[in-house]
Amino acid sequence: MKKLLHLLLVGIFLTIISCKSQGLPESEKEILLKLIDKRLSVAPLVAKSKWNTKAPIDDPAREKVILDGVQAKAKKMVVDENFARDFFQAQFEGGKIVQRQLHNQWKGENQGLFDTSPDLAHEVRPILDSLTPQLLMELKKIKPNSCDTHSLKKLNRDARKIINPIFNDQVVETVIKPIKNYCKSH
Ligand SMILES: O=C(O)C(=O)C[C@]1(C(=O)O)C=C[C@@H](O)C=C1
């Protein structure tokens, strides 16, 4: 009888543990989503700077520099390199949606040059660069094949709660997609 009870308790304990390891751990997910939000919040500064200098929103050369650096860092940190590249490419795409929306809005408002705007190379890009290693550290904590339908839905809800409402659903969906893909199947 005692043995049976013991087995039952072990069973319950293992079930709890396996349920908890399903999907992304709550606190880590929150840190990652906050960092994604922080990176997105730089996009309006980029947009303002590019509006004044008339630089194109798309900068493939800059993207390549970041992605090559990301890949090298990911390798050192033992983070899946393809996942890391996909993730950062998605962050660029999300940021570019925000930049395009703002430029369209400013065009519609006949906005002239802003009196002041941040310097892209010296003020804005360093903020983005400082977030890269922090984001990679969080990506390392995500386990492939650990998300079921429930945890993926929860990730959508949490992302919508944590990421600033000024960024629309298309932006949010874009920036979290690689996490879902990696967590879902690998
Ligand atoms: O640095 C820039 O020029 C940006 O526009 C920012 C950013 C990024 O998110 O890192 C986004 C789009 C560009 O294609 C390159 C990089």
What does this molecule look like?
- With 186 residues, this protein is mainly alpha-helical.
- It has a single domain (27-48, 57-184), classed as Chorismate mutase (Chorismate Mutase Domain, subunit A, Up-down Bundle).
- 76% of the residues lie in helices and 0% in strands.
- It has helices at 2-20, 26-40, 43-53, 60-77, 81-108, 120-139, 149-162, 169-184.
- Helix 2 packs antiparallel against helix 6 and helix 4 packs antiparallel against helix 5.
- The longest helix is centred in the middle third of the chain and has 28 residues, at 81-108.
- The protein starts with a helix and ends with a helix.
- Residues 14-21 have low confidence and may be disordered.
- Bound molecules: prephenic acid.
- Prephenic acid binds at residues 46, 58-59, 62-63, 66, 91-92, 95-96, 125, 128.
List the helices and strands and how they pair.
Blueprint lengths: L1 H19 L5 H15 L2 H11 L6 H18 L3 H28 L11 H20 L9 H14 L6 H16 L2
Helix pairs in contact: 2-6, 2-7, 3-5, 4-5, 4-6, 5-8, 7-8
Helical fraction equals: over 70%
Mean pLDDT: 92
The rounded Rg comes to: 20 Å
Alpha-beta classification: mainly alpha
* Main beta sheet strand tally, sense and closure: none
Number of domains: 1
What CATH architecture do you see? Up-down Bundle
Total beta strand runs:
0
- Uncertain ranges: 14-21
> What would the CATH topology be?
Chorismate Mutase Domain, subunit A
H-E string = HHHHHHHH
What small molecules are bound in this structure?
Answer: prephenic acid
The gross shape turns out to be: elongated
How large a portion of the residues is in β-strands, by DSSP E? under 5%
Instruction: Figure out the total of helices.
Output: 8
- First-to-last CA distance: 43 Å
CATH class (first level) name: Mainly Alpha
By CATH, the superfamily comes out as Chorismate mutase
